[in-house]
Design brief:
This protein is mostly helical. It is 52% helix and 7% strand. The strands form 2 sheets. Strands 1-2-3 form a 3-stranded parallel sheet. A two-stranded parallel ribbon has the order 4-5.
């Protein structure tokens, strides 16, 4: 495990344990995390408790899904020698701090979180009228602050969550000032570049839409999925010119292909010099070139999953150590220290 130091700023982030990750997860977060390992002191975790906010009715695969997420973390290049990898539920201090934060967080703060109403409207097949679903941003705040995260890598749509964490931080520090300094730092959003990644149907890549390309998809499946991917609707016939700027396959090229291929796609599509099948084949070439090394790294852990789980356990032990120290500070600031307090009267 990497030693805890004060020389690098601390980054904390996690992903829900919903199973194998897809290219959208890679582009939106995981690729950035890999690059952060040498610049920041990084804590990355599998958020299995967060998975319960929507999937509480069936937990039969939650451990299997957690392992799949970890395997993709390692396959993408997260290195346990350069960052701390752990599982949320194995660091119970997350839950204790969540409980304490829930005592001071106004209900209105949670109801105004943009994704709360959005997900309730979109996920209609599940009953989301639970305290856990409403309060999950408070648990997110605890996830960050139990490790005294200074930066949280997010896309623009997640900035309101970080701002809520900052509000909770200020409220806690106001009510319970530390002895010499505030208990918690105010974390800052670390806006990470994340290009729009379309799924095979042209909408945002998401498991709920069934339009994903998984990081574990073998080459034949990647090519098959791309063959059915929607393209510029103006190209009805092979001879019709197209516009790669409004084509989902064109978006894939801009993210994954080399400049020479992007130039060929742009010229060939606009002039009808190439067909969509050829264009999709080039996109598949670019994806396979990225996915193959990841799948080869993953294979080592797939053949020995205990090795991966041991990494998770070691990281969780490291995370618990720091989280325990944070909770000592929290209890001290709140006057709820576990130690005997001399000013408390004893029974006679």
């Amino acid at each position: 495990m990497p030693p805890l130091t004060n020389q690098r700023k601390r980054v904390v982030s996690g992903m829900r344990s919903t199973g194998k990750l897809h290219l959208g997860n890679f582009v939106g977060a995981l690729d950035n995390w890999v690059r952060m390992q040498d610049q920041y002191e990084c804590f990355f975790f599998v958020a299995d408790w967060h998975a319960l906010t929507t999937d509480y009715a069936d937990t039969s695969r939650i451990k299997e899904n957690s392992l799949e997420v970890l395997l993709d973390f390692l396959a993408a290049g997260l290195d346990p020698e350069r960052c701390t990898l752990f599982i949320q539920s194995h660091v119970p201090q997350h839950a204790e701090l969540h409980l304490l934060f829930s005592m001071i967080t106004p209900l209105g703060w949670l109801e105004r979180v943009p994704t709360y109403k959005e997900q309730k409207e979109n996920i209609t097949e599940k009953d989301l009228n639970t305290y856990g679903f409403l309060g999950y941003p408070v648990l997110q705040s605890a996830d960050i602050l139990i490790h005294k995260g200074e930066f949280v890598p997010v896309g623009e749509d997640q900035v309101p969550h970080v701002e809520l964490t900052r509000e909770i931080t200020r409220r806690f520090n106001m009510f319970y000032p530390g002895k010499n300094s505030p208990v918690f730092p105010e974390p800052q959003p670390l806006l990470t570049p994340a290009a729009k990644l379309p799924g095979t149907d042209g909408r945002k890549m998401s498991k709920s839409y069934g339009n994903t390309i998984l990081l574990t998809d073998p080459e034949p499946l990647v090519r098959q999925k791309l063959k059915t991917m929607v393209t510029d609707p103006a190209r009805v016939r092979r001879t019709d010119p197209g516009n790669p700027d409004i084509c989902p396959v064109g978006d894939l090229h801009k993210i994954f292909s080399d400049p020479n291929t992007i130039a060929k796609v742009d010229a060939g599509c606009r002039s009808a010099g190439i067909g969509c099948i050829e264009c999709k084949g080039w996109a598949a070439d670019a994806l396979v070139k990225i996915l193959t090394p990841m799948q080869e790294r993953r294979k080592k852990y797939e053949e020995n999953p205990r090795l991966a789980w041991d990494i998770l356990e070691a990281g969780s032990a490291q995370a618990r150590k720091g989280a325990s120290a944070t909770m000592d500070e929290v209890r001290q600031a709140m006057g709820m220290s576990l130690e005997y307090a001399p000013n408390v009267p004893t029974k006679k």
